[in-house]
Design goal:
By secondary structure, this protein is mainly alpha-helical. It has a single domain, classed as Winged helix-like DNA-binding domain superfamily/Winged helix DNA-binding domain (Arc Repressor Mutant, subunit A), CATH 1.10.10.10. It has four helices and three strands, in the order αβααββα. Helix 1 packs across helix 2. The longest helix has 22 residues. The mean pLDDT is 89.
């Protein structure tokens, strides 16, 4: 869930509920997001220095609570993960897959 959380914050700061929704949408059901698990992971990435609390947009509904944004370290970690995954995809794309039996 951590990478989806960083990805959700890549373009703009967000509040907890909005981030949970963004993770659910981007993960397309492959990541289960509950309130408890989300805030545990958020706390962990904050302790790691990848995300920090910030102020929300002016005039925003104060009931939304805290807003969060990526730190410079969080942006670097996200970029490194993107590059790592791109290398994995390139390696898989470079494989010559043997045909299955009975198929050309």
């Amino acid at each position: 869930m951590d990478m989806y959380l960083l990805l959700a914050l890549a373009e703009t700061p967000g509040h907890g509920y909005g981030l949970m929704q963004a993770i659910r949408e981007r993960a397309a059901g492959s990541v289960r997001v509950s309130t408890g698990s989300f805030y545990r992971r958020l706390s962990a990435v904050m302790k790691a220095g990848l995300v920090e609390e910030t102020v929300g947009p002016k005039g925003d509904d104060p009931r939304r609570g805290a807003y969060y944004r990526l730190t410079a370290l969080g942006r670097r970690v996200l970029a490194e993960e993107r590059d790592r995954l791109a290398a994995v995809v390139a390696a898989v794309d470079g494989l010559r897959m043997a045909p299955r039996r009975g198929r050309p």
